[in-house]
Amino acid sequence: MVTHGAPDGAPVPKVEFRGLTVRYGDAAALRDVSLDCRPNEILGIIGPAGAGKSTLLKTLNRTLELTPGARLDGRVLLDGRDVCKVGDPSAVRRRIGMVAPLPVGLPMSIYDNVAFAPRMAGVRGKAELDGRVERCLTQAALWDEVKDRLRDLGTKLSGGQQQRLTIARALSHDPEVLCLDEFSIAVDPVTTMRIEDALKALKERMAILLVTNLVQQARRLADRTAFLLSGELVEVGETQQVFGRTPKDRRTFQYVHGMFG
Amino acid sequence: MDGFGTTTEGRRRHRAERLASGVFLSMTALLILPLAAILGLLVMRGAPAISLEFLFSEPLRGMTAGGIWPAIVGTLWLVGVSLAVAAPIGVLAAVYLNEYARESWVTRVIHLAIVNLAGVPSIVHALFGVGAFVLFLNLGTSVLSASLTLAIMTLPVIIASAKEALAAVPMAFREACWNVGATRWQTIRHVVLPNSIAGILTGVILQVSRAAGETAPIMFTGAAFFLPFLPASVHDQCMALSMHLFTISTQVPNVPAEIPYGTALVLLAVVLAVNATSIAFRVRLRRRRKW
Question: Which of A22, A85, A114, B95 could form a disulfide with A133 if both were Cys (CB 3.0 to 4.6 A apart)?
Answer without folding.
Answer: A114
